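Reopening this one. Same input as before:
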Amino acid sequence: MNDTSIDYADLAEYDRRQRCIERHLLTAFLGGLAVGLVGMFLTGQGPRWIGQIYDPYLYFALSLAVGATASGFGWALLTTFLAAASTLVATMGAGALSGDLAFDVIGGSAAGLNWTLVLLVGLGLLAYASRRHDAWGDLAAGAVGVALIADVMDRATPGFIDSDRSFWPGPAVVVGLLSVALVFLLRCKARGRGRALALAAVFAGVLAACLAAVLSGWIPLTV
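Same output, byte for byte:
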């Protein structure tokens, strides 16, 4: 007689995983809505530096959290994009209610919006990859720090995509230090932390050298 017994433990584990994925999708969507709405209503309220740090760095924090807690690479891509899209929709909706129908409410410009969306999805995927316990995880963690520092350089340097003179030095220094701390926190072992920080320092140094070349005129930049 054929054995037709069912392993209910496997079915229960499968059901548990599916429920976790559903909750993760819902949390990413609602988190994006909440962050977008709060960010829009905070615009113009209180000190300018609060808005400079909130937009886009709280959006980046949401993307990192969503990517780091995803169940797989595909789910990290989907949920990060879902969180980014819901943030954009919520921000545009809140702007429409206040009479501002501009599409580039995140990032400050059309180019800044595109750069922000690419960073949001990219950071989520890097956060997922940083969970690996090998050199690739160290590289992903270092890349997270480099991406954030690159955005800081972009905002703090006149003539770049989303430059803002008031972003330097206060907000830029705060975000830069938090980026270094994030790289440290993404790795759980001292060796991995050292490699991730070293990789971030190398790539940040290359970016700084390119920036110095632009500012000195060695690399022409059309403003």
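So the earlier flakiness isn't reproducible anymore. For the record, The longest helix spans residues 8-42.
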